[in-house]
Amino acid sequence: MAVLRPSxxxxxxxxxxxxxxxxxxxxxxxxxxxxxxxxxxxxxEYQVKAAYxxxxxxxxxxxxxxxxASSPLIIVIVGDGPLGAALEEALRGKSANGHxxxxxxxxxxxxxxxxxxxxxxxxxxxxxxxVLRFLxxxxxxxxxxxxxxxxxGGVIEFRMVGNRVRFDINRTSAGAAQLNISSKLLSVAxxxxxxxxxx
Length: 199
Hints:
The protein is α/β, with parallel strands linked by helices. The protein has one domain (9-32, 39-193): Rossmann fold. Helices cover 34% and strands 22% of the residues. The strands form two sheets. It has an eight-stranded mixed β-sheet with strand order 3-4-2-5-6-7-8-10. A two-stranded antiparallel sheet has the order 1-9. The radius of gyration is 17 Å and the shape is globular. The termini are far apart. 35% of the residues are buried.
C-alpha cells in the first residue's frame, strides 16, 4: 500500500512545529531550577504542572472514537487547589494536535465523562477509588499529585523531587485506558511503572 508523504514545505513546517513542541517540553521537563537556593513559590509549582498538562495533551494519543479529529479535548479538574488558575492561563488559546482545549471544573461525584484528561486534586484522595471506578475502562488520561497515584490505578503522578516537579507514568493503566503515550514523554518521566494497576 502506498504511503502518502507531505510535500517538502509541509514536511518542513511540520518538523519545525515538532521541534518547537519538543523544545518547550524539554524546558518544562527541567522543572524548577535546581540552581535556586530556596524553594519556589507555590505559584511556580502549579505553573509548571499546568505546562506539563498542556504537553501531556500533545504527547498522548487517544483512540479516534474517543477523540475524533478536530473535536475539543476536554480537561477536567476535580476538587480544590491552586492548579485551576494556572491551567486556565496555560490553556488560553492553545490547541493540541488540532484539538482545541477546553477546561472544566467538577466535583468528584459529578458526571466526569465525557472527558479526555482528568486531574484529581489531592483534596479528593478519600474519593479516589470511587473516581477511578466510575471511569472504568474509559479512555481518560488520569493525572494527580496524590501520593502513589501511579501505583493506585492512575496514569500519571506528579511528585516533588527536591524543589523540582517530576512525574511517574503507569503504562499498564495507560494501556487499560487505550492511551498511546509517546516515547518522548516516557523518556522524560522520573519512573515508568508496569504491572497490574486496575481501576
